[in-house]
Structure formats: C-alpha cells, structure tokens
Amino acid sequence: PIPVFSSVFPNFHRLEYSRVFGRGVIWLTHLAIFALCGLSAFLLRFEFSVPDNHRLAVGTSLLIWALTKSTSFALHRLGHGWWRYVSLPDLKMLLSANALGSAVSAILIWFATSAMGAPWFSRSVLIIDFVLCLLATTGIRVLTRMMLEAIVETKKSVRKRAVIYGAGSAGVLLLREARGNSGFPFEICGF
Questions:
Q1: Where on the phi/psi map is residue 70: left (φ > 0), alpha (ψ -120 to 50), or beta?
Q2: Closest Cα to residue 86, out of 159, 149, 19, 22?
C-alpha cells in the first residue's frame, strides 16, 4: 500500500474513468513515449552527442516513429483506457504493436534518409528504440495498474479474513476480484 500517494492524489483511481483521462491523453502519452524513446535511442547510440550530420535524420526518424507507431497502436486497439486491468494478453499486443511499428519505421526511415541524402545511422538505434518503447509502453501500463491496486489496498476497511481453497482458475478470478474491488467483504489471506 502507498498511503502517502493516495493522500496526495486522493481521486487518482477515478482518473481512468473521467473525460480528463480519455483517449486524447492516452494518445498524447503514447506520442511522448515514442518521441522520448526515439531521442533516447539516438543519444544512447552516439553517447549523448549526436553528430551534426545526423540531426536531420533524428528529426525525420522521430516524425516517422510517431506516425507509424501511433498507427500500429491504433490497429492493435491499444488506445483505450483499460490500463487498470492490464494482463499478459495486453503485453503480447504491446509486443506485437511495437514490433510492427518499429519494422515499418525502419523501412520508412531508410527510404526517407536515402531520399534526403542524409547519412544512414547505425541499426542499433532502431533496436534501442524498439526495446525502449516496449519497456516504456509496458511499464506505464503496469505502473498504472500497480498504483490503482495500491490505492484500493489502502481503502480497505476491517474485513473478515478468508482463504481460497482448491478453486483453480475460478479461485484466481475470485482473488483478482477481491484485490480490485474495495467493496469485497473479505480479505484474502491465503490461496
């Protein structure tokens, strides 16, 4: 539980459902992640000093990454606000969307830099960008889920303790419901 966090941001758990934290904010978050990861990839590759002859390629690449990865995320329907329930199937979709976006971006960046006469940069920039984007887009979803679950955890009142015994998949479902629903009448202390 993070009691300090929930006292500073008491209504954070409601942001997911409000119009403020709608699809527009999610898309802006994605665009910021794509731009920061792309820029970080260049900075890491060139040891935080991008050569002057690569600056045009940096700007072009950032624009292409933002457009292709946004399109890839839209095709994979990752612009919805159900981050509270992120799970392994969602992470597979993130991997697929990032891989598609990075692959298409690599081809478009190669064509664009060739057409402009800009020098081709190292392929490691593309790999670094893919890894950073995958970690960032996954990390923000997992972090959101962790914070929302921590807030629900701090809101629990005194409840009866219970143990789930021999329920298999249904028990896992019950455990998830107990953890995510502050109105659940029991505190699960064993499984």
A1: alpha
A2: 149
Residue 152 Cα distances to 35, 109, 177, angstroms:
33, 44, 11
- The pLDDT score that the predictor gives to residue 20 is 47
With 0-12 / 13-18 / 19 or more C-beta atoms within 10 angstroms meaning exposed / middle / buried, residue 88 is exposed
pTM for the whole structure: 0.71
Give the pLDDT confidence of 105-116 residue by residue, as tens digits.
999 999 998 888
Q: 120: which 2 tokens?
A: 């081709």
CA distance 55 to 51: 7
What is d(CA 74, CA 184) in angstroms, rounded to the nearest whole number?
35
Can you name the residues that pair with 161 across neighbouring β-strands? 187
pLDDT interval class at 132 (50, 70, 90): very high
